[in-house]
Amino acid sequence: MQISKQGHTSNNGSYLISLHKTLNMEKNNKKTTFDKGVTIPGLLFILGICAFTVLFPKPTEIILENIKNFIFINLNWVYVWSVTIFVIFLVYLMFSKYGSIKLGDNDSRPEHSFFSWISMLFAAGMGIGLMYFAVAEPMSHYSDDAFAADQYINQAKNAQLYTFFHWGIHAWAVYGLVGLSLAYFTYRYRLPLSLRSCLYPLLKDKINSGWGNAIDVFALCSTFFGITTTLGFGVVQINSGLKALNIVSDTNFISQVSIVAVLVSLAIFSAISGVSRGIKILSNINTTAAIVLMLFVLIAGPTVYIIGSFTEGLGNYISSFFTISFNTHVYDEKSLPWFYNWTILYWAWWISWAPFVGLFIARISKGRTIKSFIAAVLLLPTIFNLIWMSVFGSSAIWTDFHIASGGLSSLVNNSEALMFSFLEYLPFPLISKALVIMIVIIFFMTSADSGILVMDSIATKNSQSSPTWQKIFWGVLLAALALMLLKAGGLKALQTMTLITALPFAAIMLFMAAALMKGLFIDDRYYQRNFSVSTVPWSGKLWKERLKQIVAFKDKRSVEEFIIIKAEQAFTELKDEFALRGIQASIRSLSDPFSVELKISHDLVHNFIYGVKLESKMVSNNLVEEQNLPEFQNSRTYYPKTYFGDTRAGYDVQYFTKNELISDVLKHYERFIDITAEQSNEMFTSK
C-alpha cells in the first residue's frame, strides 16, 4: 500500500483501512467491560427487589415500611451522630495541615473550570430535589401539627430553620466525605475510582477480594435505587407542570411513558458524549436558568420580606447549628413523628445517595486541594440552597398568609403541584412555569446521564473504555424499571428500600473517615520527611566560583549545557557505580521539557527518579534596570530544576558541581530506601 506525501492512499489501501476500522468497531461493540463479581449479583438484587415491588406492591411496601420505622425509631441516633461527625471531620480537615494536599499529584491541575465544576456537582447532588421541595418543604413545616401551637411568626421561622437544616451543610458533608475519600485514594494513591478503594488503608489487598466486591455491589444497588426513585418523582413533577400549561390533558401513565422515553434517550446521548461535553454543558445551562428563575421570584415577590427572612434565617441557622444538629426531640414526643419523617428521613436519603453523588463529584475533582474541595462542596452549594429556599419558601409562606388565605398550605399533600400553584400568584405565570419545567427536565437529564456514567463505572471497576452499548443498557434499565414501578405503585416501596440501606452505609462511611485520616497521616509524613542527619551540606570551598555564577546572566543555552554536561555526566558515573553493586539504573533525555533523568525501576514499589529539567521565570523590571545588581539582558531567566518520581517539589541546582549533584542524588536515594523499608509506609510506596 503506497501513501503519498499529500496523505492520499490508493483505492485498495482505502478499502483495507476502512475494513480494519470496521472490524475494530465491531470488536469494540461486542466487547464488555463489566466485572462479573459486581455486575451479576448487583443486577440480580436490583431485579429481584423491583420484581417483588411490582408483583406484590402492598405486602412489600408494608414489610419495608415496618423495617424502616423500626430503624428510624430505635436507631435514629446513629444517623444523628454519623452526619454530625461527618460535618466536624470535614471542617477539621479544611483547617488542618492536610488541607494543602492535592487530590492528585503535587503538580496536577483541575480539569474543569470552577463554575463548571460547581454546576456539575450541584446538578448531580440536588437538582430535581430543589425544584420539588423549594416550596413544598417550607409549606409542609409551616402547616405541620408539630408547630401548629406556635404563632405565624414562629411557624414561619421554624419552617425556614429546618429547611435550612435539611438542605445545608449536613447534606453536603455526607456527599463531601464520600467524594473526598474517592478522589483522594483514586488520584493520590492511583487506586480505581471505586468505593472499595476508600477502605484501602484498613483492608489493604482485601479490597480486591469478596469484601471489595460486596462494597461495590452495595454502591451499585444504592445508586440505582436512588436514581430510579428520584427520576420517578421528577417525571411526576414534569407531568404536573405540563398539565398546568395545558400541554397534556392529564397526569396519566401514557404521558409519563412519553416523558421518560424522550428524556432518557437524551440522557443516554449526553452520557455517551462524556462528562466534558454533555453533562458540563447541560449543568452550566441549568445553573444559569435556575439563577434567572430565582432572581425573577426575588424581584416579583415580596423582595424586602425575602431578604429580611434570609438574613434573620441565616443568623438563626448559625446560632442554632449545634442545638439542632444533636436534637433527637426525645423530650417532645409530639414532634417525634415529624422528626422521623423529615430529619431522619433526610439524613437517610442523603446517605443513600452518597455513593452516586460522591463518585460523580470525585470523577470531576482531580487536581483540587483538600481545602478548596471541602470549602467549595460544603459552603457554596449550602449558601445557594439557603438563598434558594428563602426566595421560594419564604415567598410561598408570605403569599399563603397575606394573599392566598391558606390556599397553598392546603396543597401540601400534592407536592409536585405546589411550585406551579405558587407561581400563579406572580406575574407572567406561563413563562415562569415553562422555565421551571425546562429546569426540571435538564436536572432530570443530568441526574440520569451522570447516574448512567457512575453505574457503568461501578460495574466495570472504573474502566475507561466501556463500549457504548453498556451506557445504553443502564439508561434503558433505569427507564424501564422506573415506569414499571410508577405503574404498579411500587415507587414508594423502592424509596423505603433505599432509606433502609442507608444504615449500613453510614457505618461504612465512618470507616471511610478513619481510612482517610490514616492515609492523610502517612501522606503528610512521607512528603515532610527530611534528609537523614548523615547527609553533608554544602561547604564554602567553592565560594568564588558560586559568586561568579550568581552574578552571571543565565540564558537558555547555558542551562542546557549545564544539564548536558554536569547533570548527564553525574548520572552516568552514578549509573556505572550502581551497576557494580548489582543495581540497574537507566538515563533518559527528554526534549519537552529539556531534561535528563536517572531512573531505577522496581517491580513492587514505585520507581526512583531523579531528574534535572530546564525551567524559566520572569524577572522584575527593577532587577533588569538596576545598575548595582547582577546584569540581566531581559525579563526572563533560566535555571536547572530538579524533579522526582513521587512529584515532590524540586529546587534550583544551578550552583551545584558534578560531585555535589551526585551527592544530592544519593541523599534522595538514601531517603527513598529509608522510607520504602518502613512497613508503615507500605501502602503509599507500593505500586
TrEMBL record:
Keyword terms of this UniProt record: Cell membrane, Membrane, Transmembrane, Transmembrane helix, Transport
Subcellular location as annotated: Cell membrane
Topology of the protein relative to the lipid bilayer: Multi-pass membrane protein
Molecular functions (GO terms): transmembrane transporter activity
Transmembrane parts of this sequence: 37-56, 76-95, 115-135, 164-187, 214-233, 253-275, 287-307, 344-362, 374-398, 430-452, 472-491, 497-521
GO cellular component: plasma membrane
PANTHER family the record matches: HIGH-AFFINITY CHOLINE TRANSPORT PROTEIN, HIGH-AFFINITY CHOLINE TRANSPORT PROTEIN-RELATED
Family: Belongs to the BCCT transporter (TC 2.A.15) family.
Protein name: Choline/glycine/proline betaine transport protein
Lineage: Bacteria, Pseudomonadati, Bacteroidota, Flavobacteriia, Flavobacteriales
